[in-house]
Structure formats: structure tokens, C-alpha cells
Prior knowledge:
Layout: E1 6-8, E2 11-13, H1 16-20, H2 23-51, H3 55-72, E3 80-81, H4 84-97, H5 99-118, H6 130-153, H7 157-176, H8 182-196, H9 226-258, H10 264-280, E4 287-288, H11 290-299, H12 305-320, H13 323-326, H14 331-345, H15 353-358, H16 361-377, H17 380-399, E5 404-409, E6 415-424, E7 444-454, H18 457-472, E8 476-480, H19 484-493
Parallel strand pairs: 6-7, 7-8
Antiparallel strand pairs: 1-2, 3-4, 5-6
Helix pairs in contact: 2-3, 2-4, 2-11, 2-12, 3-10, 3-12, 4-5, 4-9, 5-9, 5-10, 6-14, 6-16, 6-17, 7-8, 7-14, 8-14, 9-10, 9-11, 11-14, 16-17
Amino acid sequence: MPPALTQTGTRYATSVRDALTSPRLLTREVLAGLVVGLALIPEAIAFSVIAGVDPRVGLFSAFVMAVSIAFLGGRPAMISAATGAVALVIAPVMRDHGLDYLLATVILGGLIQVVVGALGVAKLMRFIPRSVMIGFVNALAVLVAISQLEELLASPWMAYVLAAAGMVILWLFPKVTRAIPAPLVAVVVLTIVVAVFAIDVPTVGDRGALPDSLPILMLPQVPLTLETLGIIAPYSLGMAAVGLLESLMTAKLVDDITDTRSSKTRESWGQGVANILSGMFGGMGGCAMIGQTMINVKVSGARTRISTFMSGVFLLVLVVALGDVVAIIPMASLVAIMMMVSVLTFDWHSFRPSTLKRMPRSETAVMLVSTLATIVTHNLAVGVLSGVVVAAVLFTRRVAHFTTVTRTLAADGSEARYAVDGELFFASSNDLTTQFEYAADPERVVIDMSRSHVWDASSVAALDAIVTKYERHGATVEIVGMNEAATAFHGRLTGNLGGE
């Protein structure tokens, strides 16, 4: 019998209990963890190089974060480990101050993430438009592809052949069966081919020495002074911001792929605790990994925390107990997996001519800005923030023209009535004062706000300016129709904004 399914919202999601009671599902989760564990090894070593630390630091960080986030995180099946984005932020600390200060930076960055998560700042994700999300996803796909092409360019021509063969396996094998993850088949087949035919191509072992022992608790030996805080705090803040942004965006992406919901607040403080543990066990910290998460969720079909936990376990077992075997895995096999991830991650629909024709130009512009800014800077935070800023500016311009003012003159000419229709805020209220006929109006003017709302001080200042201008012409103004909230807001600020 198939396992029962647990309901999440209006969809159904596989739970850990389902997987543990179903050999088929459990096999899928465990094998997915094995594939991700294999893929984490060269990535962790590469990011260690970026951060300027020993490969062991990156590998230990990947293990600690993957295992801890499996229990602490708010998004099942998402993979967290050492990442390039975090490595770039903290690299100057290692270069200028050494490993102890780097570990202290990671721990402080984790503490900041815990505080941010506890304050519920993760809820701000709702303000990131869909077009920014698409740009983020497309940029990640491009960056993943570029990084893999760089790997191939530094390899002999046989690596191209192996990578192409690996992509063929990844494309065709799922059509035969999904019982065994295609990435695992690709890695095993290409490793055997390289070993049997003694093909000279770069291998995982060429990336650096693999650890031969378990990570141990090693608190950073730094003075607990304000000077130390001044050194590490800027980098900790940067690490916390970049890590949370990448993690929450990845969680949102997995939510969309799996049609389930996750707790962004729990994910925020979970990432923080994972980084604290990473720093305490000699790791370089990190965040969610879009590439490995897509391997786990989209390529291997994993859906539970089991796959995340097993990816960390397999990583440690592989590098400590089977280091000699892992070392001979050709990098071309992992390049093939990551290239397929890039192809599957990119939102091809967003660039179809039919889609671009239907989509508003502002939405397309926001998507392109997010994509290009991320690709140019290789910084996810810059890309997302650029997209959000552009989206906010374009939205403000669009809604600024929605406010209209209609003038009605009484039959006996004794009263002019203005009906304001639309939302008043800093953009729309700027032109409000120009839509009244001060000199031509009678001595009594009524401004009807029943179909409008006052949102900020700029709107109150604009209404004050209108009243002041009418008073100069000897007219009295009555503002009517405000709802309770707008009346309270207007009453608190009117006459106290420093205008004439």
C-alpha cells in the first residue's frame, strides 16, 4: 500500500514518517542524499579556496550545516552548506586576521541571523515581486553554467566528452526508471570509465586534501574586546544578510516547485544556529545552496529532511572513510550534473516571445535588472535589491497617476465640492495641489475624501498647503469623508509639518 500523505495547505506533501514507512520513498531520499553528498565535496573545496582556508574547513562546514539544518530548518529537502556568496564576504577576514577571527565572524553572523529570525524579519519576503524572483532564478542558472564552463576550459578535451556523456545519461536515464537517481548513475558510470581506460582528467582529489578525521569543537581564540567586535561585525552583518537572502529565496523557489509551504521564520533562525555550530566546529559557515538543492529536489525528487541529513552524513563518510575512492571521481561527472541543474533551473518560459509580448514592460525590466545585476556582480544580494528598487520605482510611477480630483460647483455658486479618488502618498500627493481652482472658487470649499486614503506625511502636507492657499483667497475649506484611521492620522499631523 502507498503511504498516507500529510496535508500542507491545499496540497499533499511527503513527510519523514511516510518515507520511513515506505522502502521506495526511503530509498529515493537516501540515494538523493548520496548524490548531493558527492556534489558537495568539490563545491566545498572550491569555496574553501575562495575563502582562503584549508579544504577541511569548507568540508567540515558543509557537514555541520547540512546535518544541523535538517533538524532546525523550516524548508524540508533544502540543502545548506558552505557557499561561494558567504566565502566572498568573509575572505578578507581570513586574509587579514587569520582563522580564529574568521570563525568568530561566522559565529557572530549566526547570532545575527538568529535575532533577525526571532524578530520575524523573514516576513519581508512577501515584498519581493515575482519578476525579481524569476530574475534571481535565471541569474543563478547562468552563474552555475558559467562556473562549470570555467571548470571545463581548464580541463583537457576528454573532459568535454565525459561531461557531454554525463548529460546524456542525466537526460535519458529517468525515461527508463526513476528508482535510482540519474546523477548517481552518471557519477558511477563516468568514474568507472575513467578508471578502466586510465583517462587523464581532473578529479575530486585534485581540488585538495580530504580530511581523515571527524570535526572537533574548536572555539576561536580571539580577545573579547570592542576592537575585535569592530573587526568582525561588518563582515558578520554582510554574511548574515547575504546568507539569509539566498536561503529565503531558495526556500521560496522550492516552495513553488513542490507546491508546499515552509516556515521562513524558522528557516532564518535555523540558518543562524547552523552557522553558529559551523563556526564552533571549525567551519566557514554558509547558507542554502541553490545548485545542490535543485539536484536534491528537482533532479533526484527528494522531499523530506532525510535527504538533507543523509547528504551531510554521506559527505563525511565519503571524505573520511572512502577518501581514496571519492578522490578518483572525475570533475566532469559533477560538471554534467551542475549543467543539467542549470538547464532545469532557468525559467525558459520567461524569455519566450509570446511571454514577453504579453508581459508588461515594467515586469520584464525588473526581471532583466535582477538577472544582469546578479550576473555582473556575482552577488545575489545586489541583484535582488536592485530588482526590488526598480520594481518599487516603476510601481510608484504607475500608481502616482491613479489619483483624480473632480470639481462640482453648487447651482447657486456658493460652494465648490472636490471629490478626491485614489490613494494619497508621497508620489501621488505631489500634484494634488495643482488640481484646485483657488482663484475661481467661491468662499466655501468642500474636499470629499470618502474615496481616498491618506497614507503619509506628504499627503497631509499637501492638504495643508491646499487649505493655506484657499485661506489666502478668503475661502474656508472643510475636509469630509475620511475614514477613522485617516482622520486620526491627519489630525495628528496637520498644522505640525512646518509648512507656511
